[in-house]
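Bump. Still looking for Polyprenyl synthetase family protein structure tokens.
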Amino acid sequence: MTSQALERVAGYERSFNTLFEEYFDRLGADADAPSFSRFTPECVRLLRELSLRGGKRMRVVLLHEAARLVTDGRVDGLDAAGLSIELLHTHGLVHDDLIDDSPIRRGGPSTYYAYRDRFPAHPQAALGLTVLAGDLALALSLQVLLEAELPVAVRQAMVEVQTRAATDTFVGQIIDLERDFIAAPEDDVLHGVADFKSARYSILAPIQLGLLAAGGQPALHDKELRAYARLVGICGQMRDDYLDLFGDAAVMGKPTGTDIRDGRHSYTASALLAAVEGAERVQVRAALGDPGCTPETIAALREIAERRGVPDRMQADMRHYAQQASALAAGWRSRWREEAVTFFEHIPLWSIDRNA
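Sorry for the wait, here they are.
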């Protein structure tokens, strides 16, 4: 991307982080809970810590750049939409870590493990409070839109976008778990999970919200926006799955090999199984779903994968889908601003080159 685009991205991140911190300051001060409750402010604190601890804010970037497809002027509603997007993401992180039994998120304890440490003698309370923390983040993501000072029609349209995005994400979580009961999921299964679980709330919804805030009509272009989001979502999920085996744990802020230990039939696991046979296949199958799988075993699987060309094939597949998405965005020039269209052309290629 151009230096100007990178400066805008950095500016969005800085501004939003300040906005998010101020939001949690207000939430902590004004939380509507009985005076005796200590668990409620603790829940808000944990959501704050998770929300403010890292994250690239690319959903916020997509939101602002989608508005720039229509105008380069000031657009009301982007702050509320950004808060809604990131609170929905926080909800997803809390529940993902509970479902996956993940101890670490963004270099710190997951909300679930924070509650487990807080209530070691009460595991059901820790589980319940984690579920409720995620639910609270979801409710707050809709509340910030309902309270936004926007025309009623725009506000309602934004709430509808986020409600659909949340519903699709829940379906994505369900089919994500279902996928792992399929012995050898085919590409349409893997792509469907990527679309529902992440693309619709991480890519499609921010674009729709940005267009709505700027006075655009995303419904007129629904089919191609969904196609673009799906392709970028597939690239992003492939990259996440790729990094789980081939990434740097120190850079990512979480250990590698988690998907293997959890028995996740991810893009990487599927590509690895398709590339091996005989004793190597037995070795991969034995590791897949073994929670006691050692770092040495994960390293051995990585070596097998590299020997069989799995990283190169995955990178080629990612680039293929990214190029399709980029070509789709190029067709937007007939209706939207050149500079912003160029940004959406570049985003898919950037997504596959990141290392965390």
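The mean pLDDT is 93.

Edit: fixed formatting.
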